[in-house]
Amino acid sequence: MAATAHPHSAARAAPGLRERKKIKTRLAIRRATYRLIAERGYEATTIEQIAQAAEVSPSTVFRYFPSKEDIVLTDEADPLPEAALRARPADEPPIESLRALLHQALSAMSAEAPEEMAQRSRLLAEVPAVRARMTESASQAARRLAMVIAERTGRDPEDLRVRVFTSAVLSALQETAVYWAERGCRDDPAALLDQTLDTLEQGLTP
Predict the structure, then answer these.
(1) Could you tell me the pTM of the whole model?
(2) Binning pLDDT at 50, 70 and 90, where does residue 17 land?
(3) How far, in Å, are 170, 183, 197 from residue 90 at the CA level?
(4) Which of 79, 115, 156, 183 has the maximal Cβ count within 10 Å?
(5) DSSP for 99-164?
(6) Using CA atoms, how far apart are residues 80 and 67, in angstroms rounded to an integer?
(7) From CA 200, how far away is CA 122, in angstroms rounded?
(8) Is-contact 4 21, C-beta < 8 A?
(9) pLDDT at 1
(10) Rounded to an integer, what distance in angstroms lies between the CA atom of residue 39 and that of residue 44?
(11) What's the Cα-to-Cα distance from 192 to each of 17, 111, 187, rounded to whole Å?
């Protein structure tokens, strides 16, 4: 359920052969990582073991992912693709545009890789290094998101209100993923997403 910061847009053209090979390699590395972590634990899983399980070299792993934390957190789909956000109705409130895109991304993740989504959230909740890397990635994603939100609201990307809004959204999504994991991933993630966005929109109303 955790939001990611991988710069991949769902609106881009279909990938060519070279890009498909890259995606296949990334998927093999990520799936090997999740499998090994489930068997051995996060700390006991090494890049060398991941490379062997994915049938690639350690240098190939590092070429695709700078760190083990990035393997866990990176996905092929960006939950907040700029092109899709720009395509939303111009008069739609930003929070509702984000709600529509996030529900779409969550539905896809739930259908395609539910166990991976749950494991990622558990690691986010349990491993400080993963949470720290997510926080770092979120700051980069916030700047990308701020550009689009600024366009849609007629503000400057460096406007404090834009920066606060985008940072709040991404921090809230991270906290929601942690909350979901802490409760055993039993809650409906779509309902938690709505509760999160409602809180950002309405505050702590009585």
Answers:
(1) 0.84
(2) confident
(3) 22, 37, 19
(4) 79
(5) HHHHHHHHHHHHHH-HHHHHHHHHHHHH-HHHHHHHHHHHHHHHHHHHHHHHHHHT--TT-HHHHH
(6) 23
(7) 24
(8) no
(9) 63
(10) 10
(11) 38, 17, 7
Contact 3, 138 (CB under 8 A): yes
The encoded tokens of residue 171 equal 């921090």
Structure tokens at 14: 């279909």
Question: Is the backbone of residue 3 left (phi > 0), alpha (psi -120 to 50) or beta?
Answer: beta
CA angle 34, 36, 42 (to 5 degrees): 80
Scan for tokens 């999740």, then name that residue: 34
6: three-class secondary structure by DSSP: coil
